[in-house]
Design goal:
106 residues
Length: 106
C-alpha cells in the first residue's frame, strides 16, 4: 500500500510539472473539479490520488501505472474512448496514437 501511494504521488508531481508549463492548465483532484473544468472549457490535468484512494470500487491495488489508472477512471466516468498520445499499450477503451509534442509547451 505504501508503494502505491508513492507511485500516485509521483504521478501527481508530474501533473503539477506539466501544468506549470502552461498557465491555462489546472490540476484537478476530484470528479467535481474535473466536471466543472469540462463544462467551462478548462484544460485540466488529473492528479489521481484523491479519486483513487477515495473510490469504493477503486482500481486493483497493483494498478499504479498511469495507462491502467486512466483506463479505470475512464470506465468510472463512462468515457466512450481514451486516446493516448505516444506509444502506450491499448486496453479496452484505449487507442494509441503517435504524435509530436509541441516543444514550446515543454
Amino acid at each position: 500500500m505504501v508503494q502505491r501511494r508513492i507511485d500516485l504521488l509521483a504521478i501527481e508531481q508530474n501533473a503539477w510539472v506539466l501544468a506549470s508549463h502552461d498557465d491555462r492548465c489546472v490540476v484537478v483532484c476530484t470528479k467535481t473539479e474535473l466536471d466543472w473544468g469540462m463544462r467551462h472549457d478548462q484544460i485540466s490535468v488529473w492528479a489521481p490520488s484523491k479519486i483513487v484512494l477515495d473510490a469504493v470500487d477503486g482500481p486493483p491495488t497493483h494498478m499504479v501505472d498511469m495507462p491502467a489508472l486512466v483506463e479505470w477512471f475512464a470506465k468510472e466516468m463512462q468515457a466512450a474512448q481514451v486516446v493516448f498520445v505516444g506509444a502506450v499499450p491499448t486496453g479496452e477503451l484505449g487507442t494509441a496514437r503517435e504524435a509530436q509534442v509541441d516543444q514550446a509547451l515543454l
